[in-house]
Every structure is written in C-alpha cells, then in structure tokens.
Fold each of these.
Amino acid sequence: MAGRFTGSFTQQEALPAEAVEAAVAVLQSGRLHRYNLAPGERGEVALLEAEYRDWQGSDYCLAVTSGGQAIQIALRASGVAEGDAVLTNAFTLAPVPGAIAAVGGRPVLVETDITLRPDLNDLADKITGSGAQYLLLSHMRGHLCDMERLMQICDAAGVTVIEDCAHTMGAKWNGIRSGNFGRVACFSTQTYKHINSGEGGFVTTRDAELAARATILSGSYMLYARHGAGPEQGAFAGARYDMPNCSARMDALRAAILRPQLARLEGNIRRWNALYRIVESGLAGHARIALIDRPGAESYVGSSIQFRLPGLAAGQCRAVLAAAGARGVELKWFGAGEPVGFTSSHESWHFMAAQALPGTDRIMATLFDMRLPLTFSRADCALIAGLIREAVSEVAP
C-alpha cells in the first residue's frame, strides 16, 4: 500500500473573515428576517440578489431557503400543475424528481448516456411519448450536455426548460453560463455546493412575470418592492392574487455570509479545476478505470469527479468501496441497491411510478463518485488518485 489518506472528504473551508464579520453585524442588529429593515436600509438579501443577478448575467434573481425550494418554486412559477408530466434526468439526486412530485407533477425519466448527460435521442422520444411540456434539466455532478441541441429539441416541441444548476454554478457551455439557456434556473448554496450557507438557493430568470410569481411563492407578502433584483411592480398584478405563500425566504444571516463567498467564486473555480485535473491525470491510463468525457465546449467546475469501472460485478464494486475506504478514500457508488447518504437510484424513488431505464442502470452499475473539497491540497489529490488505482487493482487486477 502506497500510503493512507487521513483527511476529511466532508470538511469545507472556513468562511472568509469578511463573512464572519458580516454575520456578527447581522446578529448584533437583531434584524435577521429579510423584510425587517431599518429605515433606508436595503438589506443583505436584496444586496445578494442584485450581486448574484449581475454575476450570473440574468435579469432577475430571487434568494430562497434551499436548492430544493428553488426547484419547487421554479416549477410552480413555470405553470406545472397537478398531474402534469415533467421530464427529468434518470441520473440525478432524489430531490430533483422529488420536487416534481411535491408540486403534483408526474416525473418522466430520460435515459443517461455514457458521459453522464441526458440521452438527447431518448429525450426527443420521451417528449413525443409523454406529451410533457416541461423539462427539469439536472446538470448532474457538473456535466453539461450539448445545450444548443437540447434547446433546439425543446423549443421545437414547445417544452419549457427549467435548469437545475446545483452542481454547475459558474460552469459554461460555449461561453454561456449554465442557467442562462432555459426559461428559469435554480441554484443551491448547501454546504457541499460552490458557495456555502448550510442551506440556501437562488432562482434566476429573464421572464418578469415568472420572477413575480416566484417572488410571491417565496413568501414576499406584499413587500416585493424590497427585493434587490426583482421585476417592476406591474409584473405582480396577477401574481399577488394567484400564487400561494410557501414561506421560503432566505434570511439576512445566510445572505451576509454568501456575499463575500460570491466575490471569491471565480478564483475558487480555478482552484477546484486544478485539483480535478490532478485526480483525473492520476487515474488516466488505468486499464480498469473509464474517465468521463469533457467536451471542448464545456467549461466545468470540478468540485467532484466521477469514473466508471466497466465489467465489474456488484460484489467487485462493493469490494472497491471497501478497499478505497481502508486507504482513507471515501467513494460513492451509484450501483447500490439501497440509498446510501446522498446517493440513490431511480429504483428507490417510490414516490413516483417505476420506469424501465436499462441504459441508465447499466451505466450506474459501475459508476463511482468522489468529492473534491477545497481543503484538499494538490499533493492530497495526487495521493488519492494513486490510492484509488491501488484499490481498483487489488480488486480487479
């Protein structure tokens, strides 16, 4: 054994000093609710919304309590109603189809291809077969598909695209940020995402009426004029009467600690990608390990890495998990029969109708995943790659 990794795969970096200072200032003010403002005060949440709107390059931004709430609000604001078919990736995390079910929609899963992106041929077939008018596109684990082709398919069929960008904050396809292709986009600021408030999220859009509906849904009461990146007051004429209040407002404390992190995000993207390339290079060339293709049009954010072990049986995959774990390397395997941690497959999502997805099942049977927190050094990443190679070779020489 070449050694053992002794670091943590769940330890995030400490928040910047500016974030701590901003948090203390909010706590000392006692004004944590986004609408509890002193006279003339704009407020941390409104400031964050404006800053994120400008960084994303959108027209409107709404800050909410979680990425999951961002998705539910985006679905409702887009018009998804009880019983509507909503397409989404078969390879995603449970909260994505869960959000569809939570708003009364009917998830229709699209096959995943060998690059972990939705199979666009199957997408076209599923649009025709299901009659779905909505696609909740999950950029799962940071892999962007051919967005021009996807939008052509959806636009031709009149399908509204809602982008789940929880894993692609800052990623681009042909120079365009993820989230700026569909009608509306959802982002997460959960601890393991690209900026960290424990829980939190954003909804962004260029559609003023959708932004107004989302704002009322978030629980603005009639205080929407206090938002930092909302539409003009006229856009709320119908929404203020039609949309229920879901009480999903971001609070001032979370916004205060996110603003300094957003200012550092571009630099952190470069750091993540440097770590990713070290692990990718360290795994490359192993006869058993298949890396995931990164198209030239994609500018990714490498906060996690995935690889497949084609040809290995389920028992061997479990043995790889154990062999890596013995070396201090925490891998996740998407082929397990039962949900483990944040990882699960469509077969365990009993809140929706079972669906046959042989292509996805075949890929996920040998698919592994690993976080790359910024607390890792470059030397850590080189060591980890070597330990993974050892673990795989031990199980499948």
Amino acid sequence: MRLFLFSVAGIYIHIPFCKQACSYCDFHFTTNFSSSEKMLEAMLLELESRKGYLERKNISTIYFGGGTPSILSSIQLERFLNTIKKHFTCDNKMEITIECNPDDLSDKKLNELKNTGFNRLSIGVQSFNDDELKWMNRAHTENDSVDSVKRAQDSGFNNITIDLIYGSKFQTLANWEQTLIKAAALNIQHISAYNLTIEDKTKLGVDFKRKVEPEVNDDFSAEQFKMMIEFLSKENFIHYEISNFGKEGFISQHNSNYWKGVPYLGIGPSAHSYDGENRQWNISSNTAYISKINNNEIYFEKEILSTDEKFNEYILTGLRTIWGCDKNYIENKFGFMYLQKLNSFIESNQDSFHVNGSVVSLTDKGKLFADYISKQLFV
C-alpha cells in the first residue's frame, strides 16, 4: 500500500568502477581507474550541491551500488557518509548498505566497513558453480563466496544479502536446487535472485548475436522461479518482491522504498533521483559528468511526471510487491477511470490476482507474468 505523504527518503551512491567486466552486466561502469579520484571529488560536489533536494525529510537509508563500491577505501567511503550526515537530516537507525564482491571481503576490509558505519552487506555471489562463474567473468570462486559470508558474520554483520542469477545454460533444476540449499545453509537474512537477461552491449549479448550463446529459455526459468518460491518459503523467507526474499525483520528498507514511491536522491553518473513529482537522471559518461560538475553545467535530464505516468509507475512497482496496489488510493489519486481499468483486467484474469479488501496483489502465477500484466494496465 502506498502512503500519501513521506517524511523519509533514501540516498543512492553510484560508484562506476569495477575490476573487470561481467559478461552479462549492462550497468554503467568502467574498468579504467585513471579518473577515480576526480570522479569521487565530483560526486562529493554533487552531493553537497543537492543538499536541498530532500528538504524536510529524514534520510532512513543509504545505499552504495555500482559498479563495485567495495573497491573504495574506508577513508573514501567515510567521506561520503560524513558529507551526508553534515548536509542531511539522518535517522539514528539508518540502514546503510554496500554492494561487495566476495573477493574484496578480507577480514581487514570487513572490519573497516563495520567501523565506518555499514550495517548491511550485499554480496554478489551470483553462482556456486566455478565454471559458471568463469563464464560470467566473475573474479571469485564458490569457496570465496562461502568464506566471505562466514567472515562477514564473524565480523559482526547480521544483515547480509546475496545475489543469485538463474536461467543460464549451466543450470538444471537439480543443481539450481543445490544452489538454493547452499544459499540457505549460509544462514543469511536476504536473497535477491534475478533471471538472466541478454543485453545488447554486453559480451553475452554480442556472443548471442554471433550465435555463440543460446537464448534464455523462459519456460525453464519459470520452473526455476517456482522452485525458488517454494523452497525459500519453507526456509522462512518472505517473498516480498518478484526478485527479493527476506527473513522477518530483514526486508530491504532501501529497495522497498523505491517500490513504495518514497523519494530518493541518486548521486554519480547514471544515477536516478525522484522527489515525488519529478524524475531526473544523471548523464551516463564519466568524463562528461566530471567536466559538467566542475564547470557548474547541467549534468542531468529531468521530466515532470504526468498523471498517466505516475499511475503506470504505481502499477509497475506496486504489483511487484506483497504490498500490492490499493484501489482506494488509485481512485483518490488518479480517478475512477484508472480504477475501472484495473477492475476490468482483474475480472478477466482472476487467477493472477489476490484481492484483499481494497488491496490487489499478484498470485504466484501472476508473478510469472508481472511485467506483461503491468504493461496491459498501463495508460
């Protein structure tokens, strides 16, 4: 359910550097570190210059993503956190997350992250199959992944999520089940699992065009998805968003805020921001971003969301979650026409929806077609 007013907000810091390029990833990053100091200085300038963007809102979450933010030193990370605390009103119990690669998480690094103030780790495990990890061009092994989680727990981290990818040619239902068993055995609090997608500008995308790689089998991915829902439910994970499962009390606050329409500020090249009415996104070029920030030039594009666009986003994000969409909110915020469209579609596709009072959410069957359903409801 979406609230009408928000007193909280989040901040996202996009670190656009990686040691190496994964075969499937189309996020904005570079493996060239020559501009890293200039980039971080520019990002700190942007952060300071936008201190009024989330006016009168308490910062409840901070999320360092990328790229690979765990490659930064504790001094560099601390500069960002200190700048945020200096210029924004911060909640005393902020969720502060950093994305990490398993091979970055030495005991020394983990202690530094803990002492710097991070209280949630997102570890990019992706797979427990070493051949598959090599194919993905990941820098770690299965043992690295398991060891990194155990070291993090020994260092005092009790809010850990891992990423997994399903749908690759290396997987069968049997070894996917083994992956889920290994993940659950780590006693972590959260799992994010994403269906492999073939993006044009990635190595995987290029190989697919050359017919070196097969396309992703959607029917097989659907079987893996159903297996995952059933297995993780038995392990007491709450399936609160299409790709996300959390133990009680460990649902990601930061990402949940995105889906609930809570305002957020995005810092760094390609980062997006949303204030409740407008959406803006920074230029996806490191060189141009640094230059424009330093020369006080416009480095982003901006759009004012129309009523139709706000409705479409509400449907798209709401139906992905257990909180669903509220019919009363739709009628009050957007109008009866929008509610009528939703009611008509539900009537024709009843097995895809749960209706609890005024709240509409997707059944497990509906979750398989979440994107399709949302597009059918778009105005």
Amino acid sequence: MSLIRALLSFLLSTMVFTFGQDSSKASFQFSTLMPIPDLSFFNQVYTGLDILEQMDFKPLEGKSIALYTNQTAVNRNGNHILDLLKNVPSVNVSVLLAPEHGIWGLDDSRAKLVGREQVDPLHGAPIIDLFSTYVYPPHWVMDKVDLILIDFQDTGSRYPTYLATMSKIFETASERRIPVMVLDRPNPLRGDIVDGPVPRTEFQSYESYHLFPIRHGLTLGEMSILINEMGWIKDLKRVDLTVVPMSNWDRDMWFDDTQLSWRNPAPFLLNLSSLLIYTGMDLFRGTNMNIGFGTETPYMIVGSPWLATSFLIQKLEDQRLLGVEFKEIKYRPTGSIYHTRVPKYDSQSCGGIQLNITDRDEFNPLTTATTIMLLIHQLHPREFQWEEGGYIDKLFGTNDLRIIAAQKKPPNHLPAIWAQDVYKFNEFRQTFLIY
C-alpha cells in the first residue's frame, strides 16, 4: 500500500465524523455529499474516483452496479475506472451505460461483439447505447442493479448530450428506486465563470436540456445535485443521490492547473484550447459554415468557399476582442474522423480564419463566436444561411441571436441581452455549490 493510500486510510478512519460535522459544507434535502477528509496538505487535486479508490471502493462492496461512463473516467495516474474495478472482486459491474461517442470514444477495440450486442471484455458486462439505440436503460439490465455509478468528465458547457442522457438515467433510477452515486470531476473551464443565455423552454433540446447557461461554471456533482434538488429530472422526480466530492479543487482552476490526466471529452475536443473555443464556436453548427471538421484543428477554424476573409478580419479587428488573434488561411476539408457526418464543403477549397487564443483569462469564446457569426451574416447576407429547423435557436437556447442578425444590429448588442441571465443564474447556483 502506497504512503498516500496509507495516510488516506488513516484519515478516513479518524476524520470522517469530524468532516461530516463541518457546518461550512452544504446540506441538501434529496442529495448527500459523501464525507471525505481534509486533504489540503497534499497540495494536489483528487477526483471523486481518486477518493473512492483510496477508500478501496468500500462504498461499492457487495453491489451489482450499472456504470455510466466514457473514456475520460481515469484516476490521477491515467488508469480507467473499468481497469480499477477489475481488481475489486467484491464489486460486480453488471452493465455499462454508454453515452454519445461510446465508452471508449473513437477507440472501440476494447469492446467485443457477442451476437448483436457489445460486451466489455474486462467484466463481461453488456454495453447499452443510450444515445442511438435506447433512451432509457432497459428494464432487463436494471433488474440486476443495486447501484448506478456515474463518472465522466464534463466539458464545462451545455452542448454535449451526456447530461441529457444522465438525466434519463436519473428518471429510470427514480422509478425503480435505484440509488445513484456520482463521482465528481473538475469543471475544466474554471468554476467561477458563467456566460451565455439560459435556454427558454420552447428551445430546449438534448443540447440545451436543462436551464443552464452555455458556460455554466459547475462541476458534474454540482449539476447532479442542482438537477435532483430542483426536481428537473421529470415530473419533479428525485433520486437517492450521493456525490463523492473532489478534494483540493478551487473554482479558479483551469483543467491543466489540476495536474490530472487529460482525456478528450469528445472525439473532436483535442485539448483545452479547443474545449474553450468550442464553448462559442459550436454555435456555428447551426449555420452553413465549416468549423474545421475535416481538418486537424476542429473548432479552431471557420470558413467556406465564399468567405471574404481579409475583409472579415479587418471588421473583427475593429471589434477589439480580447485574448484572441485571427489569421487568414486557405484549407480543404477532407472527411473527418471526428464526426459521423460528412463535413460541410467536403473536398472544396475554403477561405477561412483561424483563431489563436493569446490570453485565455481575457478570451470570451461566446462573445467572439457570435461576433464572427454576425459579421459574416452582414458581409454575406445571401450566402450565409441558418440550418433548417431552427437548430441555431436550440444550440443558443433563445432566438435572440437570429433576431439580432435579422435586425443588423452591431455584434456588441448581444452580450448585453444575455447578461441578465448570467447574473440571475450565478445568484441561483450559489445554493448548490460544494466548493
């Protein structure tokens, strides 16, 4: 047993009661924070998985679990939760619940086919696709489950469908009275910055499922608690929720400040810079622009065959956007391993601008992306188009972006519109913060 594990075991046996009585920790009506010791003297961040591992997974002992996870669920040393649980014979992983992009992202070689079903070779557990095959975990696997365990790295923005799928799992857990345990992980884009509009109910979708602004500043555990306490699952349902919190995470930390192992949270999010830019540039999926799919730098580029790049850059420089530089480029999208669909303008020569973050603390991805979009709309009123079905409204959460574009107002009008949402949500979320 390592020195750290030995110290943690000692602390857990001697300090849990004291920690549990710490009045500074939030208490909730329907959700529970698992008591953990104060580990501040170690001066490193421990995720919920790290904490559970140092407890020798005793809270899972003797249970048959359903695990909702993906490739990001690794400990400080980069070992995946499935590999760790393989060494815990008292825990039975009976089913794996897979989000969009699967358990392993692009690398599905760790799964094998048995008949028409995928099975995890480590645990022999069936892999249930909760994105393209099922919406809810089917009863024939939930009948064998004592606990649902959730561990994945959130992106810090509300676009990914992972949270919507987790909410569907919560619904099933509520109906079948199965306890849920969430292992907390950092918000990779800091936990002290909130930005963007809160979705209006008529525009809610899998990519704006709950009433979170685009950049929400919450950890996975905090989102789980907020959803559960507010009864946002469906019909005011709640689950028996336990969150295993992190230790030593501060809200002003970027992911690379934590020194934790990075795993791409989605196949097209390759590093922290692309993750930050994605918070704004993902809105371009609601338009006919290419945003770097079919290149090695998705989200870092926006372009099309008809874009007047030099004039656009001049207009952007007039906006004096902070923390970012723009470069004129030519490129040709050619297929994409990062997306299941053919990229826009596949194999066509495109003019584009490339974004380079010069100061991530000053850079505002939402203001930058919407400014670029509105300027392109003004420069190319005939060529620029919105995707059908009001998709941009579902991504943005309101129709304000389209309205401002139609009214040809200056781009700086838009952030002022969502500022009230930011203020109200930041005030509202305080009750649910656990760090």
